[in-house]
Amino acid sequence: MPKKVDHDQRRHEIIASVWRLIADEGLDAVTTRRIAEVTGYSNGLLRYYFPGKDSVITEAYRYVVEATNIRAALGTSERGLTGVRTLALELLPLDEVRHAEARVALAFWQQALNHADEAALFDASFSEWRDFFTARFTEALADGEAAPGTDPVATTGELLTLLMGAQITAACSQPEGNARSLVVMLDTFLDRLRPCDLR
């Protein structure tokens, strides 16, 4: 009797290898031949799961977003600035894995500029993070952890811009993108939000 194939599991295994290929070798490495080499699957099987290069990049980005959210545990009860810091640290490229994820994100953002489906996925992931940060900043304001007058929506926009810039800086191997500098930058940003007597 033929072995039953778990297609979702196989797709996941392929992407688990491919996202590292993108991170290590760039978009030019995303060819059927190269993917076959790193996954051990035939070209024909790969085309069954991923009909083109765009679909591979999209799934790699989705994989990275899901990994980030799992690590950050978005459903936890961490309130206010503590919750903000938890997710922000997972989005910052502070170690080899998160640095590789930043490179995948950059590759995907390039695709999202000209493709509606990729743009929609980008919007969805950022909307989730935007909602999370806005809710945590709102809690910080209500709890007296953030200074009166703090605008949760505007502050979220500033933070997301900071985090995106940090990913670009680190992915391009600039000295400002080293882990220590990025953590100091995040903590300085959060400290500026606190009332003077809590800094």
TrEMBL record:
<dbReference type="Pfam" id="PF00440">
    <property type="entry name" value="TetR_N"/>
</dbReference>
<dbReference type="GO" id="GO:0000976">
    <property type="term" value="F:transcription cis-regulatory region binding"/>
</dbReference>
<dbReference type="GO" id="GO:0003700">
    <property type="term" value="F:DNA-binding transcription factor activity"/>
</dbReference>
<dbReference type="InterPro" id="IPR050109">
    <property type="entry name" value="HTH-type_TetR-like_transc_reg"/>
</dbReference>
<keyword id="KW-0805">Transcription regulation</keyword>
<keyword id="KW-0238">DNA-binding</keyword>
<keyword id="KW-0804">Transcription</keyword>
<dbReference type="InterPro" id="IPR036271">
    <property type="entry name" value="Tet_transcr_reg_TetR-rel_C_sf"/>
</dbReference>
<protein>
    <submittedName>
        <fullName>TetR family transcriptional regulator</fullName>
    </submittedName>
</protein>
<keyword id="KW-0678">Repressor</keyword>
<feature type="DNA-binding region" description="H-T-H motif">
    <location>
        <begin position="31"/>
        <end position="50"/>
    </location>
</feature>
<dbReference type="InterPro" id="IPR009057">
    <property type="entry name" value="Homeodomain-like_sf"/>
</dbReference>
<dbReference type="InterPro" id="IPR039538">
    <property type="entry name" value="BetI_C"/>
</dbReference>
<dbReference type="Pfam" id="PF13977">
    <property type="entry name" value="TetR_C_6"/>
</dbReference>
<dbReference type="InterPro" id="IPR001647">
    <property type="entry name" value="HTH_TetR"/>
</dbReference>
<feature type="domain" description="HTH tetR-type">
    <location>
        <begin position="8"/>
        <end position="68"/>
    </location>
</feature>
